[in-house]
Amino acid sequence: MADLSIAFFSFLLLFFSLSLLFFLAFIVRPRPVKVPIKNRHVFISGGSSGIGLALAQQAASEGAKVSILARNTGRLEEAKESIRLSTGRDVAIFSADVRDYKAVKKAVEEAGPIDVLVCNQGVFVPQELETQDIEEIKFMIDVNLTGTFHLIKAALPGMKSRSNRGPGSIAIMSSQAGQVGIYGYTAYSASKFGLRGLAEALQQEVIGENIHVSLIFPPDTETPGFAEENKRRPKLTSILAASSGSMKADEVAKKALNGLKSGNFIVPCNFEGFFLSLATSGLSPQRSFLMAFIEVIAAGILRVVGLCFQWNWYGSIEKFLEERK
Ligand SMILES: NC(=O)C1=CN([C@@H]2O[C@H](COP(=O)(O)OP(=O)(O)OC[C@H]3O[C@@H](n4cnc5c(N)ncnc54)[C@H](OP(=O)(O)O)[C@@H]3O)[C@@H](O)[C@H]2O)C=CC1
Ligand SMILES: CCCCCCCCCCCCCCCC(=O)[C@@H](N)CO
Predict the structure, then answer these.
(1) Percent of the chain with pLDDT strictly greater than 70
(2) Residue nearest to atom 20 of ligand 2 (CA)
(3) Are 41 and 116 in contact (CB under 8 A)?
(4) Pseudo-torsion of CA 98, 86, 88, 79, nearest 10°?
(5) C-alpha 46 to ligand 1 mean position (Å)
(6) pLDDT (tens digit, 9 = 90+) per residue, 208-233?
(7) Which domains does the chain have, with CATH numbers?
(8) Assuming Cys at both sites, which of 5, 35, 139, 220 could form a disulfide with 246, CB separation 3.0 to 4.6 Å?
(9) With DSSP H G I counted as helix, E B as strand and the rest as coil, what are the percentages for the chain, rounded to 5?
(10) Residue 163's pLDDT is what?
(11) How much is the average pLDDT of 123-149?
């Protein structure tokens, strides 16, 4: 009798899982896609340092025609030289501030039609909102969010008229602080959460042009920018951010490149990031029916895990405030 009901229960479970899998395979949109980069034009903003430089290096070594954009000409030249030394390939460099739409447009037009646009530039000056200057808040929103609007708007006409018509990609560098709000990151998190809204809406607008959007979510990453950030990061910000391990720029670049080549909308970078992405999948598009299946099955329990993280974080905040008294 017991054997029979176990068999019956297993059958039901299997039947339920398979039906769900088939259903999801049928409905997931947009459809899976591969975005090749060999011999294609990859344009990377913030490509002179950290994650962007590592991305430029890896894309060049995979045979892409790479352009990089940043403000400082000296660092652009240095990046060009280091990529030439490590890959034997030449990258085109463009000096512009992403906050200046005209300058961005000029650079993008000079660079020629883009197949893969990587909006990676970003600034991060963590501080509690109450004491942070309004100028610094605007600085983060302008560079991280408005700057990304400028890049995409400048690049879209050229991307639409691509002669070969292969799949194109717009990859946007967010942060795990763009999936969950973290102490000390009010402006930074807001700029990065903003990118998600931009990306979700944009994907619907450009799917008809065979352009595919990816959003990349790195944890703390060892870069020149991060070294600067660490000089002034509030202690609590560091404590909470340590919930996710830190990575090297090369590792993040590899994840980012693989993610955009696979056409994934959400691109986590480490183990914690994978679960964070599942827990915050929301109404984002999902091309993989297997990932969609995991999202559905894991949703309830991950909400519990997420609440445990909040419990732990609020505990740290309480303890910190207690000690400061
Ligand atoms: N490092 C980390 O811990 C994490 C980083 N990220 C994100 O990854 C991205 C890259 O970060 P990371 O490599 O650490 O940063 P870096 O500070 O090392 O490099 C930033 C790059 O962006 C360029 N840049 C900055 N401001 C502008 C601007 N106004 N116009 C044009 N280019 C600009 C810089 O060049 P120049 O100054 O010459 O203009 C540089 O090339 C950012 O979007 C960041 O938010 C996400 C999660 C973690
Ligand atoms: C349910 C499962 C949860 C899994 C764990 C969640 C861990 C969240 C940690 C968030 C860390 C944010 C780091 C931002 C780094 C960054 O962007 C700055 N260095 C500036 O560049």
Answers:
(1) 99
(2) 124
(3) yes
(4) 20
(5) 5
(6) 999 999 999 999 999 999 999 999 99
(7) 32-324 (3.40.50.720)
(8) 220
(9) 60, 10, 30
(10) 66
(11) 98
Record the tokens describing residue 273, joined without a space: 């990031």
Cα 269 to ligand 1 centre (Å)? 17
* Whether the model pTM is above 0.90: yes
Question: What is the b/e burial string over 265-303, where b = at least 16 CB atoms within 10 angstroms of the residue's CB?
Answer: bbbbbbeebebbbbbbbeeebbbbbebbbbbeeeeeebe
Q: What was the pLDDT predicted at 2? A: 74
Residue among 81, 106, 82, 78 at smallest CA distance from 94: 106
How far is it, in rounded angstroms, from Cα 24 to Cα 41?
34
User: Where does residue 164 rank: exposed (0-12), middle (13-18), buried (19+ CB within 10 A)?
Assistant: exposed
Q: Closest Cα to atom 16, ligand 2: which residue?
A: 220
What is the residue type of 52?
G
Q: pLDDT tens digits for 175-192?
A: 999 999 999 999 999 999
Tokens representing 204? 């619907």
Question: Measured between alpha carbons, how far is 285 from 111 in angstroms, rounded to an integer?
Answer: 31
